[in-house]
Amino acid sequence: MAGNSGGPWGGGGNSGDDRPGGRGDRDDKGSGPRGPRGEGPQIPEIEELVKKGQEQLRVLMGGRGGTGRNGGSGGGRGGPALTRGTMGLGVLGALILWGMASFYTVRPEQQSIELFLGKFYGIGTEGLNFAPWPVVTAEVFDVTTNRTESIGVSRSSGDNDGLMLTTDENIVDIDFQVVWNIKDAMDFKFSLRDPDASVRAISESAMREVIAQSELAPVLNRDRANIEVRVRELIQATLDNRQTGINIIRVNFNKVDPPSQQVVVTDAQGRTQSVSVIDAFRDVQAAEQERDRVERQADAYANQRTAQARGESAQLLEAAEGYRARVVNDAVGEASRFLAVLTEYDAAPEVTRKRLYLETMEKVLGDVDKIILESGNGVGGQGVVPYLPLNELRKNSGGSN
Amino acid sequence: MRAVNYLIPIVVIAVVGALSSIFIVDEREKALVLRFGQIKQVRTDAGLGFKLPFLDEVVRFEDRILTLETPLVEVTPADDRRLEVDAFVLYRIADIVQFRQALGADGERQAAIQLNGILDGHIRADLGSQGVTSNTILSPERSTLMDQIRERSDERARALGLAVVDVRLRQTNLPEQNFDATLQRMIAERDREATDERARGLEAAQRVTALADRTYEEILSEARRDARIIEGEADAERNRIFAEAYNQDPEFFEFYRSLTAYEAALQGRNSTMVMSPDSEFFNYLKSDQGARSVEGE
User: Fold this and answer.
1) pLDDT at position A116, please?
2) CA dist A255 to A146, A223, A229, A236, B171, Å?
3) CA gap A247, A314 in Å, rounded
4) CB–CB contact A238 B268 (8 Å)
């Protein structure tokens, strides 16, 4: 403790350097060694003025150190004015250093606990706080800042660390983060010696407990949010039980996957291959996609086929309707033509009949190659043997074609 | 001068003596004051304490919750399936006198070793006891088991001056060989699902394709049927129209139709006619009186 008596001096100076406010004035140090302590000579000084002062001080210490210590009220010859001034400066410096040791700032995200002789005394909040040295000590620490514990991440590749067993005895690989801060500075400081490791272990235990009560399939997809909430509540409850002052903000899943370890598997055809469960899960997804694809392709075929059927049947029906129109119209036309001629014929049968015959024959015989032969029973027509060069006729007609 | 020379050491000694006769117990600590190894004071509250300078020794103990992670132990639940289990223990030093007496000067390290042993035993015993299967461990009853382990190990830890605050099972894993088997089973399950999925896809596709083919045939044959019906109706209509018209004078129809037929049939390009001038058409070819009138002469 003897060393501590120099504490406010040296310690104060040091803490002055540490203070973010930097209220410690360097000039104070120059005047510091002039204080009525034995430390003056130990600190090397360059300035002559200061050296002079030290010499005077030494004289003072040697001659009447006792009176100097007793308050410096005793008037001296020429020295007292100087001694009094030096003393005053020293006291002022000591006061300033004591103030620096006693006042401290707390930033918005921080709080502090103050201990009066080791006993809990109060909580310091944002702003300037006062903890009179040395009976009150203060500890400043971040409170509202979020702290994160990642679980299962770093070691999951090789180790079984992120692997958890579900209630249906499947294995799932989970990485998650727990984000926490401090809700009660006093509880936090006095309850757990190792809060980070405790939060980590309690979180892992809680996650494993929840996973051990869930089935694999829901964990992988639809229950994720639910599990995050349950785990958070479980961790919080465990922590609150012990009054740790820790507030769990949220639990985040980074990864919830089937394990990626390779295993040798013998399939139905007797082939062995190295597969991982996550591959198998992906294969299921691929199969679902494949199923979808095949079904859609079939749908496409069906659509194409029915449309083709509709088109072809429409074509058939339209053709038939066309046929009907053609045939009926033709018939109607022809019939009415006949009837028209018949009306005329009825008016003058003989002439019309003759005329029709002749006109037709004229048209017919006009175009046709004709050979006119006297008939055998005619008057002088004997002796003409009708010889028909049918081949030639054919040729002619073929040529004309 | 002389007085001062004596005074300074006296003051220094007084200050040192005063300082060493007080001690501060932090809120996070408990302390024992030992004099020649004998316990003179037990301090469980924080604050200022007094002791004999130089003779009394202050021994401080942690008053916050300490943590301990047990190594993995393999337990065999009642259903003979093995599980690898480790636990995380929260404990605190409850009774510092007992703690010091039981565990000596190197207390915390000793406490961890001893507690480890106690928990190891209780985890094995409680998770391997009658009626606890691996399904129990993997179920909501897990927390009951954890409480049970906590209570029992707490009882035994009391003798060491420790209080077990909480026991949490962490890993409950399958041993390596079972682990692989489990993975294989999971893969097989997924395989089944994937195969089923693919087969169902093909099934559905086949169903749809076949239905489409059937629909195609149905639609098309219906259309053909309807087309034939229409054509038949058309033919019937045609016949009716012709019959109606021609029945008015069948004899003339025959004549008229024959003429139309000749006209259509005897096209110039493909016909050659050999005919006798006696035919009626040539009636006036040889005489202006006509063949009949010549014969009649």
Assistant:
1) 85
2) 21, 14, 16, 22, 18
3) 75
4) no
Residue with tokens 């060069």: A389
pLDDT in tens, B191-229: 899 999 999 999 999 999 999 999 999 999 999 999 999
A vs B, Cβ pairs < 8 A, gives 355
Distances in whole angstroms, Cα of residue A331 to Cα of each of A212, A238, B239, B255:
90, 102, 8, 18
Neighboring chain A residues of B137 at a CB cutoff of 8 Å: 212
Among candidates B7, B15, B274 on the partner chain, residue whose Cβ is nearest the Cβ of A371:
B274
Distances (CA, A) of B151 to A283, B147, B165: 47, 6, 9
pLDDT in tens, A31-88: 434 444 444 444 444 456 556 655 655 555 554 444 444 444 444 444 455 678 888 9
Q: Give the pLDDT of residue A387.
A: 65
Q: Which residue has the tokens 């007609």?
A: A397
ipTM: 0.70
Choose the mutation target among A159, A210, A304, A305 for the interface with B, i.e. most B CBs under 10 Å.
A305
Inter-chain CB proximity A208 and B169 less than 8 Å: yes
Three-state SS for A24? Answer: coil
The CATH 3.30.479.30 domain(s) of chain B lie at 66-173
Rounded distance between C-alpha atoms, residue B14 and residue B50, angstroms: 15
Q: Which of A114-123, A308-317, A368-377 is least confident? A: A368-377
Q: Which residues in chain A are closer than 8 Å to B174, comparing Cβ atoms?
A: 165, 169, 171
- Among A313, A337, A375, pick the best mutation site for testing chain B contact (most B Cβ within 10 A): A313
Per-residue pLDDT band at A302 (split at 50, 70, 90)? very high
Confidence label for B183 from pLDDT (cuts 50, 70 and 90) = confident
Cβ distance of A309 and B216 shorter than 8 Å: yes
Asked if B268 and A366 come within 8 Å (Cβ–Cβ), the reply is yes
Q: Where are the domains of chain A?
A: 3-100, 107-143, 146-259
Q: What's the pLDDT tens digit per position in B139-172?
A: 778 888 888 899 999 999 998 889 998 898 888 8
pTM above 0.80, yes or no: no
Rounded to a whole number, what is the distance in Å from the CA of A205 to chain B's nearest CA? 4
pLDDT per residue as tens digits for the range A222-245: 888 888 899 999 999 988 988 888
Look at domain B66-173 and name its CATH class: alpha beta
Contact B272, A364 (CB under 8 A): no
Task: Kindly report the CATH class assigned to A146-259.
Answer: alpha beta
- With CA atoms as reference, the chain A residue closest to B224 would be A316
- Residue A117 one-letter amino acid: L
The label of the residue with tokens 């991982």 reads: A276
**Contact at 8 Å (CB) between A182 and A239?**
no
Q: Are B143 and A218 in contact (CB under 8 A)?
A: no
The minimum CA-CA distance between B12 and chain A, rounded to whole Å, is: 7
